[in-house]
Amino acid sequence: MNVIICFLFFFFFQAEDGIRDAQESRGLGDVYKRQYQRRVRGLRHKEMSSSNEQAVEAIPPLLTSLHAKYVLHQKEMKDTFEYWVTEHLRLAGVYWGLCTMHLLREPDAMDPKEVSHYVLSCQHPDGGFGGNVNHDPHITYTLYAVQCLAMCDKLHLLDHDRVVQWVVSMQQPDGSFAGDKWGEIDTRFSYCGLSCLRLLNQLEKANVPQAVAFVASCQNFDGGFGCIPGAETHAAQVFVCVGALAITESLHVVDAELLGWWLAERQTPTGGLNGRPEKLPDVCYSWWVLSAITILKKLHWIDKQALEKFVLSAQDPDDGGIADRPEDAADIFHTFFGIAGLSLMGNDALEPVDPVFALPTKLTKELGVYSGDGELW
Hints:
Elements: H1 29-44, H2 64-73, H3 81-85, H4 90-103, H5 112-121, H6 139-151, H7 160-169, H8 187-199, H9 208-217, H10 235-247, H11 256-264, H12 285-295, H13 304-313, E1 322-323, E2 330-331, H14 332-344, E3 353-354, E4 359-360, H15 361-367
């Protein structure tokens, strides 16, 4: 194949330091619980956006055409150092770029035939997909493959049973999912496995009650979730756990008030969101936090105007793309999650995105997996 689609970034959910480290939960539990009671009472009686002075300032426009140009330019960067050191992430980049183009309402700008050909070339004989051609299969990349083929309307080219068999083989007796044959356990992989099966309409092939029980065992005193039982709460892990519970119709497991408070507390004075207390804000949390809080129907607890300003201020006005925060260099990962976050906030220039599946809402409706109420998504 003459043209190999390439994109840049680090790793699924590796938005900041420490996300993949299994750390014991820590913090002032009693103080948190007292703060929670006061904070929720306040949030119930006001919209945060009404009094934020930063939101009064002019909000930069969304540079849709420039972002589309930026995404499409990525495949021309084969002579760069970044291209070669991110070889193992190629399929992830294809998903980030393709979904960005769909949300920008240019779904055919990346040739569906070319994309699907590349995606299928990443499939391993055992049914799973690797991050690039001839790479070992991993459950994260298997989800990316299914998502990409769905956006290209090419799911019929996939041997569903072979993929499902591989995904189900990753589920462990305790309900958790391993990422690959080497056995790493993480709630990210629970989400990836359950999402794959739901998109392929074979969720019943998994042990759903055990999967839900494992996710529930990763819940912490602050209402959030970690990567394994006892691990620190992180906003990206919150998304995968809330997403997994939404897919399995098990949101009753979540304390929506407590977790909604924790997610709302991720907003910093800059308007941006962080992933854990005392961390810097990062554009990618415009997805991790907003998706979860949207599913919990607490989006009004976030100052959307201030957050929108933060995300749009991180745009590159010359070459397009969105960075992790203003004044930094843009990359495809933050471009996608910035656009997705803006979509969740109802930006009129963008296609609505499904907070559960990270796919265009109109596609999840076509696939029969949409679970929104028509109001928030």
